[in-house]
Amino acid sequence: MKIKDISVLLGIIGIVLMMILPIPTWLLDVLLVINISLAMMILLVAMNTKEALQFSIFPAMLLITTLFRLALNVSTTKLILGQAEAGHVVATFGSWVSQGQPVVGFIVFLILVVVQFIVITKGSERVAEVGARFTLDAMPGKQMSIDADLNAGLINEQQARERRRKIEREADFYGAMDGASKFVKGDAIAGIIILVINLIGGFIIGVAMHGMSFMDALSTYSLLTIGDGLVSQIPALLISTSAGLIVTRASSEGNLADDITGQLFIYPKLIYIVAGTITALGLFTPIGIFSTVPLAGLLAYAAWRMQNNMNQRQVAQEQQEEEQQIEEVRSPESVINLLQVDPIEFEFGYGLIPLADTQQGGDLLDRIIMIRRQCALEMGLVVPVIRIRDNIQLRPNEYVIKIKGNTVGGGELLLNHYLAMSPGYDDDTITGIETQEPAFGLPALWIDEPTKERAELSGYTVVDPPSVVATHLTEMIKRHAHELLGRQETKTLIDNLKDNYPILVDDLIPSVLSVGDVQKVLAKLLREKISIRDMVTIFETLADYGTYTKDPDVLTEYVRQALSRQITQQFTQNGETMRVITVGPTLEKKIAESVQQSDQGSYLALDPLSTQTVYQKLTEQINRLIQSGQQPIVLTSPTIRMYLRQVIERTMQDIPVLSYSELEPNVEIQSVGVVNL
């Protein structure tokens, strides 16, 4: 054990021994001075703390100091009743504070007890009780706020853990203070009881056992009793004041002195009013000008100095801001900052500000947090922070979505309206403003509140403007996910995987593949909307086949085959038949013969006439499936899948192209069309 640990243990044991063993008067004087010093130290620490958790040991200190004062009261009681003396400290407080008059000392003692018991202790107890209750009630909201900041990328996992731990400590502290305030209350009651016992018991012992006269016994024991009460209650008052300061102060940037000077004396005009009021009291009342005018002059001078200082600080701040602006324009760093491009931006006109303003009921920020969570769960992608800003160059109800500074989508919203999408047939009774659903380009109507219920009963899909934005933004992120995954983002995913699978990561990187090679494979998966959340399977496959080839296209095909269960479940439900468009043998042979090899890998060199024919026939089959309400899926052999995807991805980016080896053996497949040359 350390020396400080042994010292604390010996101190607690010493407090217990004080109640049992006799204490000499010289040692009692030292202990009483220590008690006063300790109380002053606790008060000063409480005044200089910025938040309650900086003095989280206070509830335990409150219990220890209460026990220490009780031991001192027992020791002084034994000396007062047994020897009719209690040392110089008690005698000094009894004679000096009471000015030799026991009645004065007794009244002073009662005043201290009343102030401590009724005013400070009662208020601190109530504040601690309410603080504990409110702290517990606010814990869920604070936890959600931490989770939101973590999901938004504003803090990391370590900072989130520290904030959660701080919330737990706050709850524990205010709960402990709720109980510890009872110590102060009980200590005040014990002081009154000990005073009565010492006074009555000392008077009886002095007359009956020491042969004192009535007046001598009354004078001696009353002064000693009053001195004992005062020397005990003054430290108790300081500590109870400390308790009140701690529980009544909220978190602040400064200590108590800074807060008082920064908040109480922040308005010089009010100080002038106070100075004028005090001057009027001295002039028009019997109080007199000698007591009021000097104080009023001092206040007026202080207000004048404060006003001048505030003006000087304001001028200096304005000059500093101007200099900073000039320096920023001149410095090369100001140009460098302009080179930063946000990965994702959402800009909107001033008419859509209520969507993002929480004070007006907007929940766009919360929806964006949920979008990032949804993309992480569905795509395995950590979406960067989405920059939200208003743009006066846009129309009032217009918004745009940008990826790396370039507009990739946009639309217009009508607040206080709903977007209604037809179920496949039009209802003439449902009228509104014709428009297009921005995410998928479907025909839709903007309808008002009275029409909403009728539209829902008619089978229309009805969504509010924030949901329209959320759907559009989610679709744009999924469509451009491969652009958002760079080498740095890939390194973050790798580091996260390495925490749980260090051998797997070390076996692949950098001995087999580089971070750039892995990034290319992951980007190709995201380009076709294949989730990369199962990083373990992806890395296992890359580690198996990366020693044979470094071609990212070939590695991607191996990974897709390893993710066959995931791909199958992505495009079909359990027990459902997958309806697909298959590729005929003539076209497969033509594509296989058109594959060319180069230093960068293989590529498809299909002649323009064949390419045009493939486009036309695929378009016919796809349109027929879409009109029947089915999702178009192209199914082909593994050898030409990626080349066929290259043919159609420019004009049919959202059409999935699968191979037979990417599907589970138990899935039922029905060919609803064949594309051939």
From TrEMBL:
<keyword id="KW-0653">Protein transport</keyword>
<dbReference type="GO" id="GO:0009306">
    <property type="term" value="P:protein secretion"/>
</dbReference>
<keyword id="KW-1006">Bacterial flagellum protein export</keyword>
<keyword id="KW-0812">Transmembrane</keyword>
<dbReference type="GO" id="GO:0005886">
    <property type="term" value="C:plasma membrane"/>
</dbReference>
<keyword id="KW-0472">Membrane</keyword>
<keyword id="KW-0813">Transport</keyword>
<keyword id="KW-1003">Cell membrane</keyword>
<keyword id="KW-1133">Transmembrane helix</keyword>
<feature type="transmembrane region" description="Helical">
    <location>
        <begin position="230"/>
        <end position="250"/>
    </location>
</feature>
<feature type="transmembrane region" description="Helical">
    <location>
        <begin position="53"/>
        <end position="72"/>
    </location>
</feature>
<keyword id="KW-0966">Cell projection</keyword>
<feature type="transmembrane region" description="Helical">
    <location>
        <begin position="30"/>
        <end position="47"/>
    </location>
</feature>
<feature type="transmembrane region" description="Helical">
    <location>
        <begin position="188"/>
        <end position="210"/>
    </location>
</feature>
<keyword id="KW-0282">Flagellum</keyword>
<comment type="similarity">
    <text>Belongs to the FHIPEP (flagella/HR/invasion proteins export pore) family.</text>
</comment>
<dbReference type="GO" id="GO:0044780">
    <property type="term" value="P:bacterial-type flagellum assembly"/>
</dbReference>
<dbReference type="Pfam" id="PF00771">
    <property type="entry name" value="FHIPEP"/>
</dbReference>
<keyword id="KW-1005">Bacterial flagellum biogenesis</keyword>
<dbReference type="InterPro" id="IPR042196">
    <property type="entry name" value="FHIPEP_4"/>
</dbReference>
<comment type="function">
    <text>Required for formation of the rod structure of the flagellar apparatus. Together with FliI and FliH, may constitute the export apparatus of flagellin.</text>
</comment>
<feature type="transmembrane region" description="Helical">
    <location>
        <begin position="6"/>
        <end position="23"/>
    </location>
</feature>
<feature type="transmembrane region" description="Helical">
    <location>
        <begin position="271"/>
        <end position="304"/>
    </location>
</feature>
<dbReference type="InterPro" id="IPR042193">
    <property type="entry name" value="FHIPEP_3"/>
</dbReference>
<protein>
    <recommendedName>
        <fullName>Flagellar biosynthesis protein FlhA</fullName>
    </recommendedName>
</protein>
<dbReference type="InterPro" id="IPR006301">
    <property type="entry name" value="FlhA"/>
</dbReference>
<feature type="transmembrane region" description="Helical">
    <location>
        <begin position="103"/>
        <end position="120"/>
    </location>
</feature>
<dbReference type="InterPro" id="IPR001712">
    <property type="entry name" value="T3SS_FHIPEP"/>
</dbReference>
<keyword id="KW-0969">Cilium</keyword>
<dbReference type="InterPro" id="IPR025505">
    <property type="entry name" value="FHIPEP_CS"/>
</dbReference>
<dbReference type="InterPro" id="IPR042194">
    <property type="entry name" value="FHIPEP_1"/>
</dbReference>
